[in-house]
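Lab notebook, bench 4. Still working through the backlog of constructs that have no structural model yet. Next entry is a single chain of 181 residues. Request: give me the structure tokens for it.
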Amino acid sequence: MKNAFIACYLAGGIIGIVPLAYMSLPHPVHEQQTTAATSATEWATVSHADYTVSDFRLQSVNGLSLYDDKITVERMLGDPVQVTRDEWLTEMETYEYPNMDIVFRDGIMDEIKVSGSASTVWIDDEEIPVSIEALTRALGKPDYKAEDGIVYERQENVLKLFINYDTGTLESIAYYHTSSI
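Model written out:
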């Protein structure tokens, strides 16, 4: 009886997973096309490859990954201008550099904050001007819009553009791990 239960459980798991795996594959989209000459309507198959999708995997910002430690940061950027500790969250320590802060929690990188006044930012080894227009053009359609900005997620990494919607200005760029939320 125990073996029959295990067999049914495994079969149910496999059957349950296969449709999910199939659903996550790209499928052609059928879009209605109208030709100008004849005003006839026909259906054209458009694959996901026809749409522009950002190639950015959000592996690094300004040459740093979220898996770098303090020693790696100091080797790459030198000594910080200032190191501050949060008064209330004493496990939080911020390394301040010109136009960029790096936040550590218990010695592990928690976040990289790039100032909106920086001239450029390096994302996945590509230099991009720091502006809403340039970043959205490079990164593509955001995954979602928050009340204080727009968000891009790639697997466990998040890049958020903090935008002051009253003034239309980019205040900062935050790069962090989903586990930091």
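Notes after review: Helices lie at 2-24, 70-77, 132-139. Residues 2-24 form the longest helix (23 residues). Flag for follow-up if needed.
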